[in-house]
Amino acid sequence: MSDTKGAGEGNSALGKKPFKRSKSHFADRVTADGRDGWPVEAGRYRLVVSRACPWASRAVISRRLLGLEDALPMAVTDPIQDDRSWRFTLDPGGRDPVLGIRYLAEAYEAREPGAPGGVSVPALVDVGSGRLVTNDYQQLTLDLATEWRDLHREGAPDLYPEGLRDELDEVMEEVYEDVNNGVYRAGFANSQKEYAAAYEGVFHRLEALSRRLEDRRYLVGDTITEADIRLFTTLVRFDAVYHGHFKCNRHKLTEDPVLWAYARDLYQTPGFGDTVDFDHIKRHYYRVHEGINPTRVVPLGPDLSGWLTAHGREELGGRPFGDGSPPGPVRRGEEVPAAGRP
After folding, report:
1. Does residue 14 have a pLDDT over 80?
2. Of 178, 197, 273, whose CA–CA distance to 232 is shortest?
3. Cα dihedral sign for 318, 324, 329, 333?
4. d(Cα 337, Cα 327) in Å, to the nearest integer?
5. Contact 54, 237 (CB under 8 A)
6. What is the arithmetic mean of pLDDT over 142-162?
């Protein structure tokens, strides 16, 4: 998670001091022409993610929609961090089987010892050197959609269509400021005024998005784009963690008919719901954010069965994958365990 420094002092302090999301310290880009020294190359890099983290989940969804599983292998961290942050305790021996490290922090240290900004996901690591390449979660998925095009699967959607980029950038900026980051500003606020401002921003934007989506299936254009991915990763976590844990409780997602149907439509689209692990999500937020949940008790709800119910959004038309096709079955070994699914 881009703001999380670790599960020690950094997390216990959340909610006790003003919240400010740090910028990505490592903003190198992996590009087709390799202009930053990191050319697109199948198998060269490892994508390190947490299924709990909404910023990392963007990359997980994009990778699957674009069919980059072979070109960009993925490592999934434990949702529970310790004082050295993200760790590979889900793997045999507690080490990533490719990078050979116990903590993602080791790849950060290999790149720049003592680097500021903490250890965050998603992270792209150069397998050969073991060095971090980038943790720029805002740019990473845009590059997967554009710079990695030669390695996309046949039928991959255009997630960042050139003719719609101005509108996409505008919508994504609003979603980021008020929704993606807004829920964090509300949840980690340390004053009533700070909380109220973030809270109002979250629901003002959600109401505007609900109106926008009343008569259109997707946020921009008639196909799934990067904008839908970015909104989805917050909506899918809303009732499970943001409504209660982050005090964004004016209403639940399930109480907004438009956004709830929109979120279910995406969840049931291959590449979205099949990447979501509600177990990882809940355990991470409630057990790691000790500053706002000192008991570390994880709630048993909400009921997840509604995610699989009919949504009716097909009536609005739209072509989910444009002229392309949906991705195939989830790769063996990357399936979400039963505990994390409805």
Report:
1. no
2. 273
3. negative
4. 19
5. yes
6. 98
